[in-house]
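Batch manifest, entry 17 of 40.
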Amino acid sequence: MHRTNLIAATDSESWGGLGLELQHVTKPGLRPGVANGNRIVLSQGPDAVFFAKIDDDRGGVEYSRTNHYRSPIAPLRATEVRTVTEQGQPSWYARWAHRFADALESSAIGPLHEGRWVLSRRLAWEGIPRTEDGPAAQWRSLLLDDHPDGYIDWFTGSWGVMPLRQMPPPDHGRVKAYRKQARQGILPPALLWWFSGLNCYVILDGHARLVAAIAENQEPAVLALSRAPSEDQTKGGTDKALSTFHLTMSILDGPHPVTDRQGSARAASHLLATQLHNLKVDYAPTRAWPMPAAHQPGLSTPLT
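Output type: structure tokens
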């Protein structure tokens, strides 16, 4: 696996994500399967961990969980957690991103397959106004934790957070230990995976950590894993952003009067940096494998 530390758009010295590139063609241990255009089965090894059926009008999706999901991340030891300081800082996220990448690369039950991936703090709902009840309440509302069955209404909301197993109660023994870490400021981030076929995140690791943070009325720290755009897509977007930037700068440098040239140039430069960064951390559709009864084996389908 080739790794690249990505620089944040707003700070040339700050960590903005971890790019991953896998060359080896492999069928992942945790993989979505599709059939008949509207049925999804998430399998892990020989076990089915999740079933979903998309409405015919594409207005939502019914789902059902089993109790077979296993995290691809080995349990985090308290001694290891205490060695990673500066909770919430970019360097703290970077260290956990490399720790999770190590675990995912060596796991036989994770979602990684060949291609480009990114681990970052960027979430799909960034920019949406916060609720007045605080971040913990907002996260509580995002959790799709009705177990085992539920429904996602795509007309009224998306970008929820899907547990792949039943969430533990706040007084569970493991959650109590994590709540203590949350109060100490050392609770590790939860690991999410962007699943485009459901238009939501699923929790790969950290079910109990999410419960602990919310129970302590804290905003959970998270890292999101997603497929990244292809090299050709990134190049096309980069060429377009650069062309727009050069056109803007040529207008600013031209003979016609422009109010606040320096401010406009800084704004154009900031916009370019943001666009180039977003191209590296943007989400690509989740890859899925057709169910053998419905499609020829060996092909793959994006969940859109």
